[in-house]
Amino acid sequence: xxxxxxxxxxxxxxxxxxxxxxxxxxxxxxxxxxxxxxxxxxxxxxxxxxxxxxxxxxxxxxxxxxxxxxxxxxxxxx
Length: 78
Prior knowledge:
- By secondary structure, the protein is mainly beta.
- It has one domain.
- It contains 1 helix and 5 strands, in the order βββαββ.
- The protein has a 5-stranded mixed sheet, with no helix packed on it.
- It is globular, with a radius of gyration of 11 Å.
């Protein structure tokens, strides 16, 4: 079963951040695609897929560990 993640916002480094639904203290993000602060989920999901995400840590503004995450599924609010 895939770990489900949901977009939660753009951090202070302009990276899109996703929070795990299954593991509340797990945050993932993409350091390769940067966005303006306040970018919407729709804008982010046009460019970012689950394959782009790496583990960021246990809080919103964590530094990325650089470990690519596998077995993730992005859940949308639409």
